[in-house]
Input
Amino acid sequence: AALTGINPSLYEAAVVDGASRLRQAWHVSLPGMAPIIVLVATLSMGQILNAGFDQIFNLYSPAVYGTGDIIDTLVYRMGLEQAQYSLATAVGLFKSVVSFVLISVSYYLAYRIANYRIF
Output
């Protein structure tokens, strides 16, 4: 979908200038898709700390607490099973803050490197 937004005359101009298919991809396609690449990379940074709670929780038991514990299952176990609501909330909030910082850093780097802003 991002490639359809690139003006075909840019490819024609590249061919007239003698650009190979690789040069067309590097100098026409990639710069044309840069805003989409920056947007997807920035939004994906917040998902780094998610490890698939639903998949791990299906096989989760006390026998695998030591090896199968991730942040989400730790929050679940502390909050619902051990009734340590304040500690579970603090861990969940810390995970959200770290995700926000990662998104902010990614957004800042995207602006500094690609000179592109989402908003």
In short: The mean pLDDT is 87. Helices lie at 8-16, 21-45, 53-58, 65-68, 71-81, 85-114.
